[in-house]
Amino acid sequence: MSFMSNEAERLKEIIRLDTELSTVQDLDILLERILTEARKITGADAGTIYVRRGDNLVFSYAQNETQRRKLPPGHKLIYSTFVVKISEKSISGYVAATGETINIPDVYKISRSSPFQFDSSYDKVSQYKTTSVLTVPLKTNRDEIVGVLQIINKQDSTGDFVAFDSEDEVVVKHFAGTASMALQRAQLTRALILRMIQMAELRDPKETGPHVNRVASYATEIYERWANRRSMPAEEINRMRDILRSAAMLHDVGKVGISDAILKKPGRLTPNERQTMQTHTYIGARLFLNKQSEFDEIASIAALTHHENWDGTGYPGKVDIETGKPLGKGRRRKAIGMKGEEIPICGRVVAIADVYDALLSKRAYKEAWDETAVYAEIRKLSGVKFDPEIVDVFFGCSKLLKSIFNRYPDID
Fold it and tell me: Is residue 221 located within the same domain as residue 283?
């Protein structure tokens, strides 16, 4: 991590971040970005970001540069989400409850008379020693606390852990103000997307909030690893991750246009019913025809192409989105399927993400598959349904994907 040695550099960075954070649309990508940039401008080795939900703080993202360096190249830390009750007993809970900023030079030397104490159990589990901690509330312009940003173990220019100073507090407080506004906007965007998904869920019980969150998260991680393998520019990867994370959530939104008789049929579909079901791809893409942004473009492509197969046997094939009729010369009765790299990358990653989650999940009509069976099926479909390179990427981050599955459990 780079260390910013003077205030002129910090000021330039803050001005840049004020602009860049306003462009991030997806909630999860934004949380990750806020934590990354807060650590960067203070030289912090680690950090955590919490989002407020009622009387609780949800542990949303954690980063630790020391721990990350122990991993193989391209791998990410795997962490478990948990909930912290907002109370004055913990450091993060105290900040959320009072709205105060807390700067602690050494958490192992907190006075016994302090209302809050440090829980060292996290250090024992991770085998990492926390020393200095700066914890800042994320407040709206109406002083409502929407989360807590906690950065850990500031490093000086030699890499030694030192205390955060008063200048760090000023910089992070300003950054937190910008981050809070961006967080509010991203939460609104996520709420609107989930409402669209709830419309589909009313029609098809398989389309749940946890399912689409998992599929979108898998797709984003698979895409990032694929793009890094191809040495794509970091700026392009970050931009695409932001768009894909939200767009992938809407991959099956076209099911709002399919009748209940087909969507909720308990038995096997007839050939005609199956053909009707397949129209959800271009029905979904059609919702984004009046494109206002790159998000609309990617959401349309993901909806249209996530059932295309690498060998060209998928659906709907090359069709006119507005009519669903095959494209090309003559009057073909059936559209020509997209094949290989004709299928856009967002369609290829959503395809494997969707199948992985469907196989791993329990549904009213089936039991969850065993992990070994899921992996065997995906290997079998390499080069048939899935891009072989994407399958290779999938297995390279399978532990991370399984942690995502656990992060968004289905609600019974």
Answer: yes
Q: Reduced to 3 states, what is the DSSP secondary structure of residue 44? A: strand
As for how many domains the chain has, the answer is 2
What is the amino acid identity at position 55?
A: D
Position 412 in a domain? no
Place of tokens 């649309």: 25
Q: Is the domain of 369 the same as that of 221? A: yes
- Residue 175 in domain: yes
Instruction: Quote the pLDDT of residue 111.
Output: 94
> What are φ and ψ of residue 270, in 5° steps?
-75, 165
**Strand positions, DSSP E, 110-244:** 133-139, 145-155, 161-162
Q: Which helix (H) or strand (E) holds 49?
A: strand 44-53
Instruction: Give me the residues of the chain with pLDDT under 70, please.
Output: 1-8, 10-11, 200-208, 329-332, 364, 412
In CATH, what number is assigned to the domain containing residue 153?
3.30.450.40
One domain for residues 355 and 210: yes
DSSP code for 341 = G
Residues 231 and 87 placed together within one structural domain of the fold: no
Domain-located, residue 354:
yes
Which CATH number covers residue 217?
A: 1.10.3210.10
Q: Hey, what are 322's tokens?
A: 């507005």
Cβ neighbours, 10 Å, residue 143: 8
DSSP conformational letter for 387: -
Q: Where are the alpha helices (DSSP H) in 313-367?
A: 345-360
Structural domain that includes position 277:
204-407
My answer on whether 329 and 299 are in the same domain is: yes
**214 contacts: CB under 8 Å, gap ≥ 6:** 353, 357, 404, 405, 407, 408
Contact 223, 195 (CB under 8 A): no
Task: Report pLDDT digits (tens) over 60-89.
Answer: 889 999 999 999 887 888 877 788 889 999
SS (H, E, C) 74-110: CCCCCCCCCEEECCCCEHHHHHHHHCCCEEECCHHHC
Residue 40 half-sphere exposure toward CB, CA atoms < 13 A: 16
Could you count the other beta carbons within 10 Å of the beta carbon of residue 261?
9
Are residues 277 and 379 both part of a single domain? yes
Q: Would you say 31 and 58 are in contact if contact means Cβ atoms under 8 Å apart?
A: no
Same-domain status, 171 and 211: no
3-state secondary structure of 52: strand
Q: Which of these, 219, 383, 377, 223, lies nearest to 312 by C-alpha position?
A: 383
Q: Are residue 241 and residue 270 in the same domain, yes or no?
A: yes
Q: Which residues, other chains included, contact 201 with Cβ-Cβ below 8 Å and sequence gap of 6+?
A: 207, 208, 209
